[in-house]
Amino acid sequence: MAPKGLIFLAVLCFSALSLSRCLAEDNGLVMNFYKESCPQAEDIIKEQVKLLYKRHKNTAFSWLRNIFHDCAVQSCDASLLLDSTRRSLSEKETDRSFGLRNFRYIETIKEALERECPGVVSCADILVLSARDGIVSLGGPHIPLKTGRRDGRRSRADVVEQFLPDHNESISAVLDKFGAMGIDTPGVVALLGAHSVGRTHCVKLVHRLYPEIDPALNPDHVPHILKKCPDAIPDPKAVQYVRNDRGTPMILDNNYYRNILDNKGLLIVDHQLANDKRTKPYVKKMAKSQDYFFKEFSRAITLLSENNPLTGTKGEIRKQCNAANKHHEEP
Ligand code: HEM
Ligand SMILES: *[C@@H]1O[C@H](CO)[C@@H](O)[C@H](O)[C@H]1NC(C)=O
């Protein structure tokens, strides 16, 4: 850090309430980072997210899922968006990324920014702010988020499984993985509320249906799932899926918690969230209060969005989101 920066930090710490709080907040991110360099950046992203949502409602699901799949894997560095190269497999192509979609529309947003402020706004910030604005499209809360992230140059396919829980992971492992990012139990319960929108493909569900039906599934919900997933081995060419929340599939609301308490959670983790004694009290509280869900959700999304960002001179500002800039390509 430059001496000027250090003095600034010292003054900041001196005036702050506590040293730990001061240090925790100095991750290099700030509110409205592009205030001078591209004042219209946040408005452009918001407008593009709205336009895309009008044309393809499911883009909002993708923006919301992206923030988890990018930020939870080491850093919010848009490594998720990189395509495979001859030398490295992309995160997008791993099993954990199954079902991720709409990546080309991230490029639509990036292109709109490049037209106004070429080379200024990072894909990592686009990913985070599109999630924020996508959450609003889905009826969720508006969450003020900091910016100033820079883009990583390498995709991290090799470590994805270390950081992203599987669909059938134990709640202990899930709590540990999020805990490592500073996200506590109510925060984890709130984040899984994202499964109040979107879909789950049959390949992730058939193990609960065949050869026999998981007795933990609500018998009233089984016929619907069976109808959507009629084959023990789903045809890979047919897009077979079940909506995560049959009641309000397009709205980010607390109906997810009522569903999982009613044993209508699709994934094993969803089901266990409502049955583990550490998480169940929060599930019940969120099922009762949308305000409480939104409050915890906003807090947890903020923590997720600030996980270990690249700032200052680290990383780069990509020209397009699916590829690292040429002169920086690693040997
Ligand atoms: C224990 C953690 C989690 C696991 C194991 C998990 C797993 C999954 C799986 C298997 C799907 C279905 C994908 C498909 O078949 O297309 C899914 C969908 C989804 N997940 Fe998660 N997820 C987790 C946490 C999260 C978090 C923290 C968020 C966001 C904050 C999130 C957002 C979404 C969204 C929005 C969808 C629907 C995507 C779409 O319809 O395109 N998930 N998740
Ligand atoms: C979880 O599911 C995967 C397949 O998606 C399977 O390979 C793995 O053994 C399962 N793990 C547990 C703990 O059941």
CATH topology of the largest domain: Peroxidase, domain 1
Ligand names: protoporphyrin IX containing FE, 2-acetamido-2-deoxy-beta-D-glucopyranose
Morphology call: globular
Quickly name the level 1 CATH class of the largest domain: Mainly Alpha
Q: What do the pLDDT scores average to?
A: 93
Structural class computed from helices and strand pairing: mainly alpha
Strand order of the largest sheet: 1-2
Structure explained in plain terms:
There is one protein chain. The chain has helices at residues 3-15, 19-25, 41-55, 59-71, 103-116, 123-137, 160-163, 171-179, 185-191, 222-228, 255-261, 268-273, 280-288, 290-305, and strands at 199-201, 241-243. It has a two-stranded antiparallel sheet with strand order 1-2. It has two domains: 41-164 and 313-328, Peroxidase, domain 1; 182-303, Peroxidase, domain 2, CATH 1.10.420.10. It starts with a helix and ends in a 26-residue tail after the last helix. The longest helix has 16 residues, at 290-305. Helix 3 runs antiparallel to helix 5 (103-116), helix 11 (255-261) packs across helix 13 (280-288) and helix 13 (280-288) packs across helix 14 (290-305). It is an all-alpha fold and 331 residues long.
